[in-house]
Every structure is written in C-alpha cells, then in structure tokens.
Amino acid sequence: MSGENLLARTDEAQLYRDLSRSNLVTTWKWFAGAGILSLVLLWGIGVFVYMMMTGMGVTGLNRPVFWGILIVNFVFWIGLSHSGTLISAILRLTHATWRAPILRAAEAMTAFSLMVGGLFPLIHLGRNWRFYYTIPYPNERGLWPNMRSPLMWDAVAINTYLIGSLTFLYVGMIPDLALLRDKSEGWRRKLYSILSLGFRGTHAEWRRYHRASTLFAILIIPVAVSVHSIVSWDFAMAKVPGWHSTIFAPYFVVGAIFSGIAGVVLVMAVLRRVFRLERVLTPLHFDNLGKLLCMMSLIWGYFYFTEFLTVWYNRNPEEWEVFSSYGKSFLPVFLLMIMCNFVIPFPMLCMKKVRRSIPAISFASFLVVVGMYCERILIVTASLARRNDPFIWHNYFPTWVELSITAASFAMFGLLYMIFSKLFPIMAISDIKERLFHTTERAFGGASVEAIALVEEGEEEGSE
Amino acid sequence: MKHRWGMAIDLDRCTGCGACVVACSAENNIPVVGEDEAGKGRLMHWIRVNRYWEEENPGARATYLPVPCMQCQRAPCEIVCPVYATYHSEDGLNAMVYNRCIGTRYCANNCPYSVRVFNWYDHKWEKPLDEQLSPDISVRSRGVMEKCTFCVQRIRRVKDQAASEGRKIRDGEVQPACVQTCPPGALVFGDLEDPESAISRLFKDPRRFRIFEHLGTEPHVVYLKRRKGAGA
What we know:
CATH superfamily of chain A: Formate dehydrogenase/DMSO reductase domain
Order of helices and strands of chain A: HHHHHHHHHHHHHHHHHHHH
Helix content of chain B: 10-25%
Radius of gyration of chain A: 23 Å
Number of helices of chain B: 7
Largest sheet of chain B: 4 strands, mixed
CATH topology of chain A: Formate dehydrogenase/DMSO reductase fold
CATH topology of chain B: Alpha-Beta Plaits
Oligomer: heterodimer
Distance between the termini of chain B: 42 Å
Shape of chain B: globular
Number of strands of chain A: 0
Number of domains of chain A: 1
Largest interface: A-B, 43 and 47 residues
Strand content of chain A: under 5%
Structural class of chain B: alpha+beta
Number of helices of chain A: 20
Distance between the termini of chain A: 31 Å
CATH architecture of chain A: Up-down Bundle
Strand order of the largest sheet of chain B: 8-1-10-9
Radius of gyration of chain B: 18 Å
Order of helices and strands of chain B: EHHEEHEEHEEHHEHEE
Number of strands of chain B: 10
Structural class of chain A: mainly alpha
Helix content of chain A: over 70%
C-alpha cells in the first residue's frame, strides 16, 4: 500500500490534474471560506485601529506586564515559520526520498507565518504611527536606530529570514511556474510567463536550478536557526527573572521547530482533504513527520526539565518566584502546556498506528500547537507578572481587543494560504515528477518499484 | 561644571506618609488615573511607596520603601530602546525624550525596579485642573513611557541661576519636589561630585544599601537601613 507505488503508476496528465487541482477549479466553498476569513481579518483591523486611536489601555496590559499576548503571538508565528523552510532545506540536503510533496506547503507556511508574525511588534507599539523611527535611513530628525537593542537585531533577523524564505520559495517554484505557463491561458499565462523567468527546461537550466536550490538550502539553515535565537534574546538579554537564561536560544529554536512541524502536519492534513491529494500526501509522509515531532517533543521535554531543574535546585528567590507561580496563578496554563506538549503527544506519537492515522496525528499536532502557545504565554507574561519587586506584582488577562487581533492573525494566515493555493502550485509538481521519473526508470529492470526508488534517490545529486 | 546627582532615602525617618507621591504628581503633570485603572496596575506615579507587611495579623507591621527612578549609572533601560528615546545625560541622569518614544515598552520590562510608567491613554485634566499644569513640563500623549527625572526642570533652573550669578551651585540648592516636601526629611538630594555635600557624606554611611545591588545597575539612589532598637 506504499505511496510510491501509487505515484509511480500514475500517468502524467492525471498527475498534473491532481496536483494542480487547487489552481484549476475555484469552488463556492473557496469563496465562502475566503469571505469568512476576510470578515474576521477586517474585524481585527478595525479593532487594531480602535486600539491605536484610544491607547494601549484597551488591552489587559499593566505594570509590570508590559508585554502580553500580542508578543506571545509574535513568538508563536515566528516559531511556526520555523520549520517550513528548515524542514524543506534539511530534507533537500539529506535527500530524503519522501520530501517532494511536503516542500511547497512547508515553504509557503514559513513565508506566510513570518508575514503575520512580523506585524505583531508593530501592532503592539504604543505609537504605531511612528514605527518608521526604527528604520535606519538618513533623516532630518537626526535619529538613528539603536543597534544595541535586541529589538533591532530582531528586525534585521526577521527581515533577512523573510526575504530569504520568499526567495527560497520562489526559486523552488520556477520549474513549476514554467509548467503552469505551458498549460494555462489568459491572464494566468501572462502571470506565469513573467514569473517563470523564461525557464525552458534545458539541461543547463536544470543544472543551474539544482545548484541554486542546494545552495539556498545550505544558506537558509543558519538564518533559520539565528532568527529564533535572536527572538529568544529579546527576552534572554533582559534583566527579567525567568527570561535571563543562557538556555533560551537553543530552547527557542527547539520549541520553534517543534511547533513548526506540528503546523506543517496540520496544514498538510487540511490541504490533503481540501484539494484531494490523498494519492500524493500519503500516510508515509505523516509517519515521517510524526517521528520528527515525537523526537522534538522529547527534546523539548528535556530542555524544559533542565531549565526548571537548575532554578528549582538553586532557589534563587527571584527566579523561583516566577517558577512557583506556575503552580499558583498560572497553573491552568502550565498544566495545559505540559499535557499538550509532552504527556499526551509523546506516547501517542511513539505508536505507528497514530502516526499513520491522519486524524490522530493531526490531533497530536493540534495539541502541540496549543501547548507551545501556552509555553509562550508562560514565558512572556508569567515572568513579568512575578518580577523582582513583589509590591508591583500583577496578573494579566487579555481583553477582547487582544483576542480579536489574535483571531485576525489566524484569519490572515489562512487567507494568504488560500490565495496562494489559487495562484501557485501548492504541490512541488516538478519535484514529484522528477522523483517519478527516477522511479519508473529504475522500475524497468523488473524489480519491485519502491525498493529501487529508495536506493536510487540517494544518488540523485551526484549523478547529474 | 560636572555634576552627578544622587539621592539618599533614610528608612529610619520615612513614615510612609506618601507626601512625596503627591508633591511629585503636582510638580510633574502626572495624571490621576482613578480607582479602576489603579486597580489594574496602571498608576502613573513616578515615585511610589512600597508597603511590605512583616508578620501576619495580629502584630502585623508595615515597612515602607519609597521607590523613585534609581537613575542607574549602568541603566538597563537605556540599551534596549531601539530609538534612543531614553539616554544617559552628562549629569548621569537617565533622560527620557518623549517625542522619540514609540512605545515598545522594552525599557519598562528591563527595569528591575519597575519605576517606568506607560501612558495607556491620553489623559485629561478636567477644568479647572488644567490650570495647574506646570508649563515647564510637557504633557505626555498616549503611547509613550515616562519616569522620574529627578525634577530635571529644577536642576536646570538652578544651574542657569548659578551660571548667571557666576558661582557654583550650593549644596541643597537643588531639591526635587519629593525631597522638598518630605515631612520627616527622609529624602536627601545633592551632587556627588561635591565631596563636602550632605549627600556625599550619606553615600559613605555604614547603613547605606541599594536595592537589587547584585544586578549591577549602579543606582544613584541609595537607602539607609532602618536601625533595630528601642521604639523602632
């Protein structure tokens, strides 16, 4: 019942129809979905304007909790963005044979969650209309941004990552765009002609394309790791008990990959269902991602344990107050985090049955996304709420304003993804075809198809 | 003429009356936010009087700790501001430029003393209260941070006065509103560059301590420890 088998015996026209179904038909359901998401997004924008006109007082923020779930959302979305490009790059470099159907969806996810996440530092500003004070350009105010501020490092890192991932996504899409150009008409043909940069599929072009995508894959990995390290330094550099910790950078990278993989699983499950890609996105892919997720859950658990252990043993009162608040005011969030990040998904994902069942693994991934959201709530708000001076301790609960903006961010992500799936190939058609080509060619010998395909793929880069 | 302003707070003298808070509010155009907002943790006071309870009822007794901005020499708030809205002045003060502030609130997060306050709304002064606003100080708009300045307007006035008379600033000539008003005289202010000043003597007092000294922020506000003894 292996997926490769199904793929290998598909004829090309059928395969193309399957893979580009998202581009070919626009159903009323698409319009309905996009309409609902647009409404939510518009509501969120309205609420944001209201917040900007009235002041940040409409949020639940206070002293000492100056950063709330708007910043949690920022970390959450940047975290989700993580695995897309990273998974895709690592799978490319390690020649994982099963990668082809995952690449595009994961890379697109990175780009869109970065776009959404990158808005939050601007949304949460007290004077959003002065955001351009942080942009380094010669100006008559005599004002240059302070490069010692981790916020500036953040801005640089996120912009680099956004540009890098968009380029990675685009370069990987060029052969597919050329394919679409050849098969489409009207305005789509014009659009794809421009975007495919005259790609004809000659040998020289393919060779350049492969070299470029390998190079990009190598370059994007350090960028991806650095981005979440720098996001963690927004916190770790500060003199806040519970934030100021050397473990934060690797811990955030791990957390980001963890939630990112869960995000990819969820997105793939939705795509599979909506665009009927059952033949391409097989249980094998979910199984493999499930193994990764299982391992990340373990690593996350280990990091959390080490961070907690040192504080627990040391009992430095400032830090201990933060951690002991997890057992008091923040107990529901803490329990939700532990359950959703480790206690439930880890044993679940150890079972092959769960990993191969798409509803089950989607459920586990959903838990992880929720758990990681809770983790960030704890990091951002609990540390501030129990900071140094007990006299000013204050709890925090978000208001409808922050919740509306949060909902709008999910709507915006969904909408971007929906529009993308209408305009661009959501499956990496050429990569899948390329793989198919290799597979069928070797199947000529008469041996079983899957076995040969798996061995062969490893030599792919070397043999060209 | 170089200055380094410092403040000493004698906890033996402090009664926790809160006059400093009132004086500061009147001097620095600090809005009164009302009960609801205060309950949400949004007081705008630049100096607060912390109250800690020792022991439970009965026999509970309160300890008071007035906390203004510490004007740290190595101020954590300054380095994290992405737009230099808060910076170190040549007198060693942490100055705040309201017009530059974009409201990231990072400075407030990085302040271990939590003395920075944020303008959650545009504040209104009902008539005739608007008449009492000091013209020396800007009224801050929504979305900017603010904090204790050691009454920098008073420092400037005295500096100008001394310069026009061609003399040095006398010890005790500069007094922030809180120091001027403190009924038991618990707050002392002065120039640490002047070795003869009262504040320089108090900085050498054996009772001297700083809050969160281990964080290495080198505050310019020191406290004099309460002596335990008869009647204390």
